[in-house]
Here is the input.
Amino acid sequence: MTTPKMKPCPTCKDTDNLNVFTYDSGWRHVECVKCNYLGPGCGTIASAIRRHNSDQDTGRPSNSPDEVTS
Ligand SMILES: [Zn+2]
Here is the structure.
């Protein structure tokens, strides 16, 4: 089974630290072990990656430090 290519972490812009973890609840999350970014939970690894990728495409402000002006 092949999984989609993950887009870089929205915080550290790196793919090296991204992994898909399965939680006790059964949900899969794309997670960054470096900055603790947590992607959307999905029932399958492929779905979790796709949701993570689509979030990067839409650039949700809540998940994008670049949007923050201080
Ligand atoms: Zn990160």
User: Anything to note?
Assistant: The chain has a mean pLDDT of 87. The first strand starts at residue 18 and ends at 22. Residues 24 and 43 are 12 Å apart (CA to CA).
